[in-house]
C-alpha cells in the first residue's frame, strides 16, 4: 500500500488537499519561490548497470503542464490531477508488474524529460 493510499484511508475527505499543500511547501522550501505550474510526468525505472549488484534510476517523460495564477487555483489543479489520474491507487514502481506511473508535482517550468543525460555509476 502506497503512502498516498494510507493517507487517503486515514483522511478520506482531505487527503488530496493535504498532499497538495505538502507538495506546495516542499517546493517552496527547496526552490525558495512559489511554484507557477503543475507538471505531470510518466515515470519509469531504468536499469543503470551491473555495479554493486545492479542499480536503477528514475526516468521521467513529460505528459502535461498546467499554469496557474494563485495558490487556490494551484491546489485545485493539483487535486484534480491526482484524483483524475488515481495517483493513490498506483502500484509501486519497484514491483516487476509496474512499468510506469504518473508523477504530479509543482514546478516553475513546463514538464520536460529527465534526466538530461543517462546517469553513470561513480
General description of the model:
This protein has helices at 3-10, 15-31, 71-84, and strands at 37-49, 55-67, 101-107. Helix 2 (15-31) crosses helix 3 (71-84). Helices cover 32% and strands 27% of the residues. The chain has one domain. Strand 1 and strand 2 form a beta hairpin. The model has no long low-confidence stretch (mean pLDDT 94). It is α+β, with helices and mostly antiparallel strands.
Layout of strands and helices, then pairs:
Blueprint: H1 3-10, H2 15-31, E1 37-49, E2 55-67, H3 71-84, E3 101-107
Antiparallel strand pairs: 1-2, 1-3
At a glance:
By secondary structure, the protein is of the alpha+beta class.
Features:
single chain; about 120 residues; alpha+beta; three-stranded antiparallel β-sheet; 3 helices; 3 strands; about 30% helix; globular
N to C succession of SSEs: HHEEHE
Structural class: alpha+beta
Low-confidence stretches: none
Strand line-up across the major sheet: 2-1-3
Overall pLDDT? 94
Portion of residues within helices: 25-40%
**How many structural units, i.e. domains?**
1
Shape: globular
Please compute the radius of gyration using only Cα atoms.
16 Å
| SS element count, helices | 3
Strand content: 25-35%
The first-to-last residue Cα distance is 33 Å
Largest sheet: 3 strands, antiparallel
> What's the β-strand tally?
3
Amino acid at each position: 500500500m502506497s503512502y498516498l493510499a494510507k493517507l487517503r484511508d486515514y483522511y478520506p475527505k482531505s487527503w488530496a488537499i493535504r498532499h497538495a499543500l505538502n507538495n506546495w511547501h516542499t517546493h517552496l522550501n527547496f526552490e525558495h519561490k512559489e511554484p507557477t505550474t503543475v507538471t505531470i510526468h510518466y515515470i519509469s525505472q531504468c536499469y543503470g548497470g551491473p555495479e554493486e549488484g545492479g542499480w536503477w534510476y528514475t526516468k521521467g517523460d513529460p505528459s502535461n503542464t498546467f499554469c496557474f495564477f494563485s495558490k487556490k487555483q494551484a491546489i485545485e489543479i493539483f487535486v484534480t490531477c491526482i484524483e483524475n489520474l488515481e495517483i493513490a491507487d498506483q502500484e509501486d514502481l519497484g514491483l516487476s508488474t509496474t512499468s510506469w506511473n504518473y508523477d504530479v508535482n509543482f514546478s516553475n517550468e513546463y514538464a520536460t524529460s529527465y534526466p538530461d543525460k543517462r546517469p553513470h555509476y561513480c
